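Worked example
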Amino acid sequence: MDLEPSHRLAWQRLGTYRNRDEFRGLKTIMAPELSRCFSPPVHEGQRRPYGALIAREDDISELGLLLAVTDVESVRDAADGVNAVAVCAKGGPPKLLRLKKPLVSQDDCCDLAAATDGVLLRVDGNGIIWIASSEAVTTIDDKNGWTRPAIDEIFSSLRRLAPTSDTHALDALVRLVYSYLSPRKVGCILLYSLVTADDTTCQTQGDPMTELGLNVCSSADWSLIEHELRHTDCAAVIRSDGLLLRKAVFLESTSASAKICVEGGTRHNSACRHTYDRPDLLAFVVSADGPVRVFSDGRDAFSLLLCERSLPWNASGGEMFAHETVCGNCGAKLTVRKIILYG
């Protein structure tokens, strides 16, 4: 079945940001819904939010109230992408699913997509599009787009990086940063402490926040945390158990860390340098454009997680070997490569 020009264009645009092989067999169903997300109806200058679930599984009654509405446009008008979605499957017109649980974060969209072995498409009033499956999430706005892996993959990487951290708090912080703040483009630096003490070394005191009792482990607090971060400059400090300690914290570099420079803007360089001076912290940096980077020990955190390669013997008059040790601050396993050149 050939697609309409606008639907074909939307499908081609998807390929710019995502491997479309993941959606094999769903092209004719997805393309019209993608087209609506890329060009939603506009009312009094405002884009109309929309959400569609492309489902491979038929039994979705446990997810909410499924309604067969005669008028297809009424289904699309009611599908706001938060409390209701249009369910599209082969062999019939879309139905309206009134959800038991609203789609607040991208993880909520991934869970819904996984439950139906499908894909969740969503556009909000600002024109930001989410394309969520069990494998990855793509965020697209008017300027660019980016794709991140499934949240479980990020969990695994950061747990290996900081094995002594509070797993519950770290996982909740990852969800907040990647699934909630990033798609909403809340530019910020979050410093997660790997120790219980609140250390202000190489930091200004900032504004204390403990009396508000905001904790990243509580999703009910996320909207207030977003409010605080969106309207405050500099960094915020998160205690090892997830409590928001301080905001508006200015990061001060030492003479050693000032030499460090990474690709990115002021936020990225400031955070990277600070983790060099403070190896007891992980720095989560959300760009104002949306993507997230994590720094540890003065480097991009994920660059530390490459699998160890076998080290060859140097036949030209030396030897090379590796020494395994453990970081005294965060407990991460380290491999120290040693090279001895004879003479």
In short: The radius of gyration is 23 Å.
